[in-house]
């Protein structure tokens, strides 16, 4: 059963057509990668899903509900979580407070900063936030100020902030960009452990090692439109994909 249906989506910036008649369906519980060369429209598509951009035409239906025209926070409340390339964390706060904030936001539907101390005393919320830090391997740093974390740990923290809200769909934009091979492999392990099989995920990624380690289905975009879709093995050998990547050097 599909949880996300994108139909006939177009998006232009002035005279530049960034998305052209995009149709994409994502199966509930799957990991779906969207790949393609630079400028293919991947980030534009993701931005249309999270409400940062509004498609010029077309529909985006998530869990039976239209997302087009909703504000980013409304889309988040509908169950779509996202981790983008630049971690969006509260840099001056401790890790545990960073995770408590979205826990609270999800629970009450609103967030008020002055409720943090009160919530801190609530066992259930606290335990959930602590468990989340444990899941991403940051328990020992729970009282550190988030700004002092390494780049990789900031991404782990943002993933925790996202997952603690129990999204039905998780969007990841290049989760391993700029990471060493060791950090990349750690991230793959982490995602396999706490996301794959638990949450439907769309991942945009240039690193094919990451894509083929995680994805069950892959859509290849080029010049704003999906050109091929299929299971990883069929994508690897598809000549249209090789061509889109100028000889297939990335694959
Ligand atoms: N806000 C914007 N204003 C004008 N043009 C834009 C804007 N955002 C994206 N574009 C253009 O739209 C096209 C698609 O860009 P997009 O960032 O979606 O591609 P991408 O596949 O994510 O590329 P990359 O892998 O390099 O991140 C590109 O030609 C880009 O220059």
Task: Give a short summary of the structure.
Helix 3 packs across helix 5.
Overview of the molecule:
This is Branched-chain amino acid transport system ATP-binding protein. GO terms for molecular function: ATP binding; ATP hydrolysis activity. Residues 4-248 form the ABC transporter domain. Keywords: ATP-binding, Cell membrane, Membrane, Nucleotide-binding, Transport. This protein is an alpha/beta fold. The chain folds into 2 domains: 1-79 and 167-251, P-loop containing nucleotide triphosphate hydrolases (Rossmann fold, 3-Layer(aba) Sandwich), CATH 3.40.50; 91-166, no CATH class. Helices cover 37% and strands 25% of the residues. The chain has 10 helices and 10 strands. It has helices spanning 42-50, 72-77, 95-108, 116-120, 123-135, 151-163, 181-194, 208-214, 232-236, 239-244, and strands at 2-13, 16-27, 31-35, 57-62, 65-66, 80-83, 169-173, 200-204, 217-222, 225-230. The strands form 2 sheets. Strands 6-7-8-3-9-10 form a 6-stranded mixed β-sheet, with helices on both faces. Strands 2-1-4-5 form a 4-stranded antiparallel β-sheet, with helices on one face. Strand 9 (217-222) and strand 10 form a beta hairpin. The longest helix is centred in the middle third of the chain and has 14 residues, at 95-108. The chain is globular, with a radius of gyration of 18 Å. The model has no long low-confidence stretch (mean pLDDT 88). Adenosine-5'-triphosphate is lined by residues 13, 16, 18, 36, 38-44.
């Amino acid at each position: 059963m599909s949880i996300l249906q994108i139909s006939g989506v177009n998006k232009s910036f002035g005279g530049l057509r960034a998305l052209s008649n995009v149709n994409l369906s994502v199966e509930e519980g799957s990991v779906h990668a969207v790949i393609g060369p630079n400028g293919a429209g991947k980030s534009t598509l993701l931005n249309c899903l999270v409400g940062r951009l509004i498609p010029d035409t077309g529909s985006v239906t998530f869990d039976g509900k239209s997302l087009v025209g909703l504000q980013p926070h409304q889309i988040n409340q509908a169950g779509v979580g996202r981790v983008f390339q630049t971690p969006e964390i509260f840099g001056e706060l401790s890790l545990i407070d960073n995770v408590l904030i979205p826990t609270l936001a999800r629970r009450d539907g609103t967030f008020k900063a002055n409720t943090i101390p009160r919530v801190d005393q609530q066992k259930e919320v606290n335990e959930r936030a602590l468990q989340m830090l444990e899941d991403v391997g940051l328990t020992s740093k729970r009282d550190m100020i988030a700004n002092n974390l390494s780049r990789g740990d900031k991404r782990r923290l943002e993933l925790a902030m996202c997952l603690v809200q129990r999204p039905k769909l998780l969007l990841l934009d290049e989760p391993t960009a700029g990471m060493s091979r060791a950090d990349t492999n750690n991230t793959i392990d982490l995602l396999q452990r706490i996301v794959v099989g638990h949450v439907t995920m769309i991942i945009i990624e240039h690193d094919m090692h990451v894509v083929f380690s995680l994805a069950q289905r892959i859509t290849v975009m080029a010049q704003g439109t999906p050109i091929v879709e299929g299971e990883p093995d069929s994508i690897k050998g598809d000549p249209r994909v090789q061509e889109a990547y100028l000889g297939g050097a990335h694959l």
